[in-house]
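User: Second chain of the day. Same drill as before.
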Amino acid sequence: MTDAVRRPTILVVDDESGILQTLEILLRAEGFEVHTAQGGKAALERIPQLTPDIILSDVRMPQVSGVEVLAAAREHDAEVPVILMTAQATLQTAMQAVNAGAFYYIQKPFRNDELLAILRRAAEHRALRLENRSLKKEIKRRDRRGGSGPIGAHRAWLDVLSLAEAVAHTESTVLITGESGTGKEVVARYIHDLSPRADHTFQSINCGALPEGLLESELFGHVKGSFTGASRDKEGLFTAAAGGTFFLDEIGETTPATQVKLLRVLQQREVIPVGATEAQPIDTRIIAATNRDLEEEIKRGTFRRDLFYRLNVIALHLPPLRERREDIPLLAESFLQRGASQRGEDPKRLSDEAAAILLNYSWPGNVRELENALERALILTLGPVIAPSALPERITERRSEPLVAERAAANPTLDVVEKAYIMWVLQSEQGNKTRAAEVLGIDPSTLHRKLARYGVDA
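Assistant: Same format as last time:
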């Protein structure tokens, strides 16, 4: 999670003191720095003083409503994510909230895990925006091909960055693939920051986070009166990204109807806002990303072949962290240094045992999971050295699995036979994956993928 390295500051606004107390207890336990304001009027006074990372506000309050709190917050800081709570959530109220600039809306009563998931996304969004501001300042002071970019020294990762640097100065559409947490948006921003469009905006949207109707309004914009709740014309993100780059994350989650409209954008370089009749030209570089296998989705009929070919002009596949283990120490050091800098603390280091645990873990959540684990470790470690006890239990208490089962299945499948053979070869080679891959006659990366599929890290 990219909100790592410091505790996000959240301002909770509600006119009921009981709700404020409950939310304060919940959010403090989850690592947020919580401040409260009883009512919208009090919130207007707190916002300039506090400059929170996130605002969570009720909509219906006497004197000053949550929508007015939202407007005041965005006037003070245009990028602060504001989540609105309402007891009467409908598509109309959702549209109105998003039109006003809300990051998200949530209906009361809500589940704690639902609220926390939204707040974590908001914290990640906020951290990315702050990091992007800092990155742009840094880039203006250095040569655009040097300095601090995405971190890693593994050959596959360097190959990705080399291709990203080569295409940055072109207008070609880029499709970035890879598992969740591998850094797809980081690479997209890297391309933007090295491009001639770097002085213009980088817009992004998660295509899987919004329902179809709301997604299309966000992408293409809409005209006043085009649907219930459309009280004014709204500029779409394709238009808002004029001169810059538009990053379409998780494009594999879009519906066939939205895909047709995206295809038109790529072919004609124009958009038609919802409810409009005339097309509007756009000038934006498009980068898309997905953790899905789009060619498999094409076979299933859930993704358009023609859209895939339009997107897949330049393909970048990001390797999972388990396939670039030598980068783990580099990433860990970077996260720890950045965490210390933002907290105003002396840098902390990993103990040898903690470092070994990080190297041996399979990291299903990839770089994002590593960053999140180190955030936790920084919070829990008082001294200069991070011990294994500061790491999450899922990392330190891994279940051991015998390389070869004592009893074979009565009617083993091909996967069972293959797994048993691979485990036997690994055991024969004392767990050395490089030598095992040579014996098996496969590439080491193929062996890593097979082990990951079996849920085994030999």
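The chain is about 45% helix and 15% strand.

User: Great, on to the next one.
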